[in-house]
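As a warm-up, study this chain.
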Amino acid sequence: FESFFSGFGGLGARRRAGGPVRGADLRLELSLSLEEAAFGGEKEIEVTREEACDACGGTGAAPGTRVVVCPDCGGSGVVRTVRTAGLMSFATERPCGRCRGEGRFPERPCPSCGGLGLQRRRRRISVRIPPGVDTGTRLRFQGEGAAGRKGGPPGDLYVDVTVRPHPHFARDGADLVSEVHVGIAQAALGAEVEIPVLTPPGQPPQREKLTVPPGTQSGAVFRLRGKGLPYLRGGGRGDHRVRVIVDVPRDLSDEERALLRRFAELRGEAVAGEGPRGFVRRVRDAFNL
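Now compare it with the structure written out below.
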């Protein structure tokens, strides 16, 4: 409605020219390792943004000159035209062509920025990544966007996070998920095995002991409470879920093969390559013959 009525006698609010203008917001994508996402910390990123011109200090006027009020629009930034048709008058407003709607302009434009008061620069800035970020997290850094004009505040910088896949760990929210491989003897008799744990960036890999109880089946999951990732909002940490994979040996020595056949006989299990004599012996044992 404001733009509609501005052409009919100025009933709407007029545009304020010459005032401070807030800088533009910027957005970029940031790729993190799982370790960086889990532990957070300072991260240096590169951003291209508009900053106040060093030569004119952001005024747009050449050194030694000043910014003056536009004589064509009187500083309003708009030129008003009145047309009369019979007993009715129609007023229209358009941006001032001399000052481009700003209401002011430099006596002599700054040669470094062409009178804009801004210059585009590439900067490396340090930002803080909170622990627990995940793919899809958007971080806001206030005042790190483009510079404002005429004393206006700078915009903000928005960073969209992507967490790269890890070779040993998967992520399920704040939980870490990994696998550990054990032999059939370890699964049947129980064992104490070492599993990798997530360590901060730059530190050597660490391992932690996990007790596998006797009779553990392949696919069993053990939960290490509080060993996962920190929650992004709120205290505490997720869990580390370890899935056990029981490996069946492929290449057996003659001695190992004989021991496994003996084990199968003791448990009454039929195995390939047993032969008729082995089958008869198991039948006799079953009937105490």
